[in-house]
Amino acid sequence: MTASYPNLRLRRTRASGWSRALHRETVLTPSDLIWPLFVTEGDEVDEPIASLPGVSRWSVDGIASRAREAVELGIPCVALFPNTPAGKRSDDGAEALNPDNLMCRAIKEIREACGADIGILTDVALDPYTTHGQDGLVDAAGYVTNDDTVAVLVDQALNQAAAGADIIAPSDMMDGRVHAIRMALEMNGHPNVQIMSYAAKYASAFYGPFRDAVGSRGLLKGDKKTYQMDPANAEEALREVELDLREGADSVMVKPGLPYLDIVRRVKERFEVPVFAYQVSGEYAMIEAAAAAGAGHRDALVLETLLAFKRAGCAGVLTYHAAHAARLLNG
Ligand code: PBG
């Protein structure tokens, strides 16, 4: 860099719309988005979630409609989360292994409606199925045990893959689960089912509305700090990512999103692999609250935050704003 003012005027390229377009370094498109959807029992159910204004739980039929909508909007992938009926929750989360559970029915219905036009990402963790709201099996002392939990998560992943899931996304943060799930997928005829691991998932205060949506908030005793990461740590995130990649993850996720873009950037620079981020429920609610309070224009806030993920190095973003953002981007 040799030029200096006035030969160099950085405002020169910003002076008109065409020039700003020409010099834009980062582009956000609908194909960067993954749309998380909440599934519930019933027919034609559209149940608003109070703490996630604008987001609903849909019954399986509605989920298929949302998936069709995603295809039309150019969104390549949906992520599914079940609101398991209270009567089907148990200490061991056995409903996660039921081939006819909400998740599996939703997967099949989407496949029926959209064929191979959409990717279906499924969350592997037991919290939507347990009476204690923890992601794994709990021992007498209340500790979430690792290896026993991994064995169940493997069966959960196989159950989802058998129903037709395209991407298995373990969000549980147990040690060794990516390797165990990869091996099981290979040995059971699912060599092309991907694993997107929630590699750097933090014990965050931003998950509250999600726990309302899947009905686990009131059930959860204590916290998830013995398995989810300490928000203070970044080097540890790199170790988590390295381990998951060695174990066979096809892509990795950082979660939450905006407060952790430094982690996204460090992971991207270090490993040069596809990195995704999850703009989680509390971030969504924060943007909606800011817009409702007049602190900013909703559409502009949505697009700016999603663009920031791309700039930080993300291949894509899981966001509850996916459909709205895609509509804005499609003009
Ligand atoms: C559960 C899971 C959580 C989220 C995704 N999968 C919550 C948690 O770990 O307690 C949070 C997503 C969000 O807040 O939008 N394993």
UniProtKB/TrEMBL annotation:
Keywords: Heme biosynthesis, Lyase, Porphyrin biosynthesis
Keyword Signal: no
NCBIfam families: PRK09283.1 (NF006762)
Lyase as UniProt keyword: yes
The reaction(s) this protein catalyses: 2 5-aminolevulinate = porphobilinogen + 2 H2O + H(+)
Quaternary structure (record): Homooctamer.
Pathway: Porphyrin-containing compound metabolism; protoporphyrin-IX biosynthesis; coproporphyrinogen-III from 5-aminolevulinate: step 1/4
Protein family according to the UniProt entry: Belongs to the ALAD family.
Enzyme Commission number(s) from the entry: 4.2.1.24
Protein name as it appears in the record: Delta-aminolevulinic acid dehydratase
Species name: Altererythrobacter arenosus
One annotated GO molecular function: porphobilinogen synthase activity
Gene3D superfamilies named among the record's database cross-references: Aldolase class I
